[in-house]
Amino acid sequence: MRADFIPQFIGALIEIGKEIRDIWSWESLYYKGIRVKGYDRRKFYNGIKNLENRKLLYKHSNGRYGLTKKGHGWFSGRLLKFHKISHTQWDGKWRILIFDIPQELHNKRNLLRAKLKSLGFYMIQKSVFAFPYPCEKEVSAYANYLGIADYLDIITAYNLGIGEQAARKFFAL
Question: Please, one GO biological process term (predicted)?
């Protein structure tokens, strides 16, 4: 009984390995002209070549790729773009972000405003936002990335004043 089990078990492992290889293979599976599985090699290759042409990526002698110094800056900017602030239990304090960015930098001001909205900040005024969780590190990193850190301040307060009820309702506190 035991002697039959081991060859069957090894055979089952081999079959599982073949199925996993098929699932994660580079080859795409198309159904009626629509890709339903796998990567499109051409798009992947074009993306790598695009990053190489932009001097963000370089190829090692062993065939692997690495980020250039410019590539590291670009990649950290992409991480900031998709970064979310982790919510902990509310400590009863509000973080009030105030900024006064000059008109010459209006594009960066709009980027900051859009980022704050996407992170879930509550807009009190066009240049005043509130958030109930610690966010200083994330906001300052993004402001430094945009080059506008000198134009904004974060104030920690226990009360938002008249608009606190609306802000509590917005954050479900």
Answer: maintenance of CRISPR repeat elements
135 and 72 in a common domain: no
Beta pairing class for 122-125 and 65-67 = unpaired
Alpha-carbon gap, residue 67 to 54, rounded angstroms: 11
Q: 102 is written with which tokens?
A: 């000059």
Is residue 69 one of the residues assigned to a domain? yes
Full domain range(s) for residue 64? 41-82
| Residue 69: how many other CB atoms lie within 10 Å | 9
Residue 87 included in any domain: no
98 is a domain residue:
yes
Strand partners, 95: 131, 156
The one-digit pLDDT tens for each residue of the chain (173 residues) are 455 655 666 666 666 665 555 555 545 555 555 655 555 667 777 877 887 888 878 888 887 777 788 877 777 666 555 556 666 778 888 999 999 888 998 888 888 888 888 888 888 888 899 988 888 888 888 888 888 889 999 999 998 888 888 888 888 88
Which residues, in sequence order, are bridge partners of residue 27?
none
Flag whether 62 is in a domain: yes
Considering its fold, how many domains does the chain have in total?
Answer: 3
